[in-house]
Amino acid sequence: MTPLTQTSYVVMGLLGQAGEATPYDLKQIVAATIGNFFSIPHSQIYAEPARLAKAGYLTERRERAGRRRKHYGLTAKGRKALEEWLSTPTEELYELRDPGLLKLAFGSDPRELARTQLAGHEQKLEELQRMARLLQVADPSEGARLVAEAGIGHQKEYIRFWKKIAVRR
Amino acid sequence: MTPLTQTSYVVMGLLGQAGEATPYDLKQIVAATIGNFFSIPHSQIYAEPARLAKAGYLTERRERAGRRRKHYGLTAKGRKALEEWLSTPTEELYELRDPGLLKLAFGSDPRELARTQLAGHEQKLEELQRMARLLQVADPSEGARLVAEAGIGHQKEYIRFWKKIAVRR
DNA sequence: GAACAATGGTCCGAACCGTACCATCTAATC
DNA sequence: GATTAGATGGTACGGTTCGGACCATTGTTC
Questions:
Q1: What is the tens place of the pLDDT at every residue in A44-63?
Q2: Are B124 and B147 in contact (CB under 8 A)?
């Protein structure tokens, strides 16, 4: 039995948008886009397509020469599973692991922490804004744009939060 | 070698605040507080203290009768490790897995999704606000209060986001 | 054509995870 | 005072995930 995990749907979802792709392609896309709100370690991005292919959700085509890259694409079965998943809204909310907040909760010095975290979030915000600008012109999908917006909103929220702490007396 | 993971610090951090505790106690505290921004499955909360005790970071005392609960506390070594960790601000940001945004990115129907997610986040917000009120009166630690505030801020951000989508034409 | 960076990928043991199950205590009900 | 239901408290375990180290091919620069 091959249970489909959220990672599975990430892979299938990307292939649904990108057509055929190698795991490396997927890795790049993840890093640039959904990695921002759905983290996946790179080793999984290589392992998962193989697993899915074996279970009939993906086609696997291997180059005969050179790098012998593997290219994956959705099968009908894969496409069906993906669509089914997409058409059922989740109630589940997020899962979060924020080491900054963790330290804060346990009594780290708030101001120092705030400085460090602030820097990170500001940088992240810029990244996201850059990305959003690209999507404005380039991307066909509305979902991608919305999601980028969501990310921006949360970064701003983080920045408000840490700033408040940083400037406190 | 026993590398200290974030989970380790959660356990040690809680013991730092609570004094001695059983894994069950820890589980309860996590569920009520830091679980909101740092998720850990309950099986880990039982496994980790044992691991840490074996490595000398915790003391382990087992009741002789009845439930034979195990009580854990920080050793000097544990306290030192904790303090060291607390005194180094992290640059690392969060790790997030949000299935709602994932589906949105891949083309789920935004309005339907919004309705479902909205309900969840509104409930979560209430929970957090209830908790925050409790902390106002009961909790000594400033960190805990700040962190609850952060959570509230993000829930509100989520609600703004999904609401905007839900009411769209 | 050597050296170096970028690309593309594999491998592995430890940690993690969900889930199912087990045991003890409490206290209400008869 | 026996029975039972629910809350409390905990263990076990096999499969999955994870980070990180390492390997191989290609492209670029000198």
A1: 999 999 999 989 999 988 87
A2: no
